[in-house]
Design goal:
426 residues, alpha+beta, BirA Bifunctional Protein, domain 2, Rossmann fold, 2 domains, 8-stranded mixed β-sheet, 5-stranded mixed β-sheet, 15 helices, 16 strands, 38% helix, 19% strand, binds adenosine-5'-triphosphate, binds magnesium ion
């Protein structure tokens, strides 16, 4: 019978890879905690309408990428393609938005039926950050300052750049959309196929078309910032001042629009040039209208999401995965013979208590000295502790360095902890 395989575009993350995931997640957690952001955990499945009403009916995600199915009650459910909609739903449902500000974050898998390729998968992982109840550009700036700190922590500062733009209020965008459609209609036949379709459905998205001919046509198109309302312009000016004051470098990209309907005013992307076309590692913006649109009281909001696969790919591509991101053992405790097994467990427990943080692997499964030492080597441990019949009789243990040519020493069992402590830097 044919073996069942994973679904295309959905990846297993294997034990060799999980340490780097934990490393990145750990850094993000630490940075976010340092700014007072609190974690929220939402379900992976939501009602389909939640995404239709927030992301927008005529976006790529809703039109062609969602995993939507009927459950056994006949309700239409969808595997979340992003986290903002569910976060707003949860925050509103539990009264987190009433008369207060919130700084929230979440992490987990997202699902989009896209064409799988490097940096683009059907199940992928995001860390998302959402802030509610703060209207000014200060909180927009904070989000960018904290992401800049994260890049620094990960060693990515020189490999990421920030693009920002303002897409104004929905009234401003509406006026601009009309002008853009009128202009582009004159070039309909010369536009790429996607852009022709978007002319009817989502014309602003044409601005970030990757097609060179379309981009050339856009050169003389009406400019979005000529249509922006005074409030959006002032908001954007102040954001730029705050970023300048904080020493955050950025470029203003007047064609930066995002693919989700709920954004307005500030939008931004952190981009890397080291991953080819899938270069956006973090993207977000303001969505002041979304809470109300989903039935809540008007509540201003801003947030972003970063793609963990791309961040990890970037660290690997640049060879920036640090030493510490591994699951190697520190000490491997062998046990030759019946009596040694119980002693090895006792010894390992003592080591775990006395050397907190060290990874102690106790050999299980018997076998010869040679095969146990082979396993010790493969565990990545720096030291093997050798316990055989002789050692048990004499109350000693062998300590053998596995990563240097130094020889084995015989120690009293009581000396093992004090000997290992400085060697492991504990
Ligand atoms: P892109 O333009 O790359 O398709 P997007 O605009 O669809 O991105 P968002 O919905 O804003 O992206 O998601 C935020 C981040 O999540 C992206 O910048 C990216 O890092 C990551 N991401 C989005 N879709 C995928 C995917 N299919 N596979 C892996 N990561 C993804
Ligand atoms: Mg996309």
């Amino acid at each position: 019978m044919a073996k069942i395989q994973a679904i295309r575009g959905m990846n297993d993350i294997l034990p060799e890879q999980t340490p780097i995931w934990q490393f990145v997640e750990g850094k993000v957690r630490k940075v976010l905690a340092g700014y007072g952001y609190r974690e929220i955990r939402m379900p992976i499945v939501e009602q389909t309408d939640l995404f239709k009403r927030s992301i927008g009916e005529v976006t790529d995600i809703v039109e062609k990428e969602m995993y939507t199915f009927e459950d056994r009650n006949g309700d239409s459910l969808t595997l979340r393609p992003e986290g903002t909609a569910g976060c707003v739903r949860a925050a509103e449902e539990h009264g987190l938005l009433f008369n207060q500000t919130q700084r929230l974050w979440y992490t987990g898998p997202m699902f989009r039926h896209e064409r799988p390729q490097k940096g683009r998968y059907r199940q992928f992982h995001q860390i998302g950050v959402e802030c509610f109840g703060m209207a000014g550009p200060d909180i927009d700036a904070e989000l960018l300052i904290l992401t800049a700190r994260l890049w620094k922590e990960l060693g990515l500062t020189a490999h990421t750049r920030l693009e920002i733009n303002s897409i104004g209020t929905s009234a401003a965008r509406k006026a601009y959309r009309e002008a853009l459609v009128e202009y582009l209609s004159g070039f309909r036949e010369q536009l790429d196929e996607d852009s022709q379709r978007r002319l009817e459905t989502n014309p602003l998205r044409i601005l970030d078309s990757k097609n060179a001919d379309t981009q050339a046509i856009l050169g003389d198109a009406p400019k979005l910032d000529d249509y922006l309302d005074e409030e959006s312009l002032a908001h954007f000016r102040r954001l730029r001042e705050l970023l300048d004051a904080a020493g955050i470098q950025y470029t203003v990209n007047p064609r930066l629009v995002r693919g989700l309907d709920y954004y307005g005013k500030t939008v931004f992307e952190w981009i890397t040039d080291s991953l080819g076309a899938q270069g956006t590692v973090c993207a977000g913006g303001r969505y002041d209208g979304l809470v109300e649109q989903l039935g809540g009281k008007p509540t201003v909001a801003v947030g972003f999401a970063m793609g963990l696969e791309r961040l990890i790919l970037l660290l690997e591509t640049l060879d920036l995965v640090p030493e510490e991101a591994n699951s190697d053992a520190d000490v491997y405790v062998t046990a030759m013979g019946e009596r040694a097994v119980a002693a090895a467990f006792a010894m390992s427990e003592t080591l775990r208590s006395e050397l907190p943080g060290a990874v102690i692997v106790t050999h299980c499964g018997g076998g010869s000295f040679k095969s146990q030492m082979k396993k010790a080597d493969r565990s990545g441990a720096r030291y093997a502790v050798i316990l055989g019949e002789n050692e048990i009789d004499s109350g000693t243990a062998g300590l053998k360095p596995l990563r240097s040519d130094e020889g084995q020493q015989e120690l009293a069992q009581a000396e093992l902890v004090s000997t290992l402590k400085p060697l492991l830097g504990a």
